[in-house]
Amino acid sequence: RARVRASLRSGVEVDVRLVPARLYAGALRHFTGSREHNESLQKRAASMGLALGPEGVLEKGGRSRPARSEEEVYSELGLAYIPPELREGRGEVEAAAEGRLPRLVELSDIRGDLHVHTDWSDGHLSLEGLVEAARARGYEYVVVSDHSRSLAVTGGLDEERLLAQKDAIEELNRRLAEEGPAEEHGAGPFRLLAGVEVDILPDGRLDLPDGVLAEMDVVTASVHSALRQPGERMTERLVGAAKNEHVDVIGHPTGRLLGRREPSALDLEGLFEVCARTGTLLEINASPERLDLKDTDARLAKDMGCRFTVSTDAHHARALGDMVYGVATARRAWLEPGDVANTRSLADLRRLLR
Known about the structure:
The chain is built from twelve helices and twelve strands. By secondary structure, the chain is an alpha/beta fold. It has a seven-stranded parallel β-sheet. It has a three-stranded antiparallel β-sheet with strand order 3-4-5. The chain has a two-stranded antiparallel sheet with strand order 1-2. A hairpin with a 2-residue loop joins strand 3 (51-53) and strand 4. It starts with a strand and ends with a helix.
């Protein structure tokens, strides 16, 4: 086996290994899993009188049985196939042995995006451009979630502009219904939903009155200021928003920006408890700068009874493709399609948010 190690300018370490074709499947399995995952597999192999190495299962005496696929390695150990995202040593081997592995959410399960910005605030897409970009991805719906008024630097919307945008969305939906499905994309009916990303202010108030929020199809509440407040205060702000009957989603809950800003100090378990009780959804923000919630937090939230959205926070058409990163994070969190709101049809989504 040959090995090449390198460091990219970004600081990412790269480890390239070359193996003979007959050993590829075993090596792929071995080097994909974490050390803890491999140790769990090795213990299971030992309990069966076998050993496990990078090439595959080793019989007594050390003779190797090169695997033809990753699935074959797990099968020889009496396990269901464990997807790469779960190979972290967090109970996946035990779950595979007992038939309890989740049917992980896939990109093809996603039927819409619940957090997208337009040129009404700081996005670069018109409403019509957003429809075209979303239809090209086969979506059934997208929520327009422009910023609220306190984020003046983003052109945030006050009550008057937000309601005017809602009227524009309804008019566009009427035109879309008259035109029928877009044949070039082979998709069915499409609908824009009127939403808003309402700011949670430093004192815990929401940036728009309840009467206006009640008019929206989907309300996402997010923190964009005073992110370094003490943990107790940060938690109060998010919990207060989650308890508001007009708030459907808590956006990018920890406020982290990867490589630039640490997560805010807050009691995540306290927030998750409230969201599970109120039915408020937690966002997995798919932007590569955020990936917030991260996988371990999302798995804890799932275990506590929460549901999620996987949304891009896109500000231009290309960023709609970031959904792949959000789905990857959701898979690492053991999420199934039923855990993610935007795997539902529009009718089912409306019932969930009612």
